[in-house]
Amino acid sequence: MFAYLTRRLLQAVLILFGVSLITFGLLYVLPADPVRQIAGRAATAETVANIRHQLGLDQPFIVQYGRYLLGLLHGDLGRSYLQRTDVATLIAARLPASLLLMVGAITCELIFGLTMGLVAALKRGTAVDQALMVGSFVGVSAPQFVVGLLLLYIFAVRLSWFPIGGYGSFSHLVLPSVTLGILGAGWYSRMMRSSMVDVLRQDFIRTARAKGLGRATVLFRHALPNAILPVIAMIGIDIGMFMSGIVVVESVFGWPGIGQLAWQAIQRVDIPIIMGVTLVSACAIVLGNLLADLVTPFIDPRIKLQ
Questions:
Q1: pTM score
Q2: Which of 34, 76, 87, 220 has a beta carbon 3.0–4.6 Å from 269's, enabling a disulfide?
């Protein structure tokens, strides 16, 4: 176990280094000029040059990246060009909201997706199966803002069951979590159906039935733990996606997460914030996949970490 964790941590360091290098390189060649955003349109050439020199943006790429990498090694994500605040402080202020929404969204995804996939597998080839798979396809294909606005109109405007937007209570969390849950449940349902159909054909399932075990016991004790393994890997990927890739939903519901922070930084070419959010998201993906791998042997003892 120790050797496995050591190897995975070393791989994580290399992955994060690669992410930082590629992202910094793309931002370096970006046509947009962050100095112009800071100085304003009416700034003189001398003012622009002074700001560029103060920020070190007149240095070669290797010097700028080396300085940024040195700051990372000391736990410094830099300072926002426009907000004049440490990036770590800005992200830390938005992180609780993003984590809360992530937990709510993944919970809804699992409830909707696993239920749909399980029922579809048990009713394979019937009209129920076809209807659920069509529904999952629609859920995956539907634009986030359309689903979000539709839920807002029905449950917030017409029925007044939930607030239109904001952050701070459980009622504020429901609609954005359900929106993301509907959109992500399609992937989980299709994966769950495929995996469950495959598991139900295995010899050990026929053996369990031949022993006279009840349908529920065979399904939930023997089939489900094996069928759910691919879903666990998907959860690890979703953790990173929800940390930064839910900008549309956060904007629709006025949710103050780091996805909205990243979108604002992209509009303003605030490079330190873009780099900080990207690295935090990459860390979330790496840690999510590592946790998924560590949990898998507890679900299926036949799987060993090597």
A1: 0.79
A2: 34
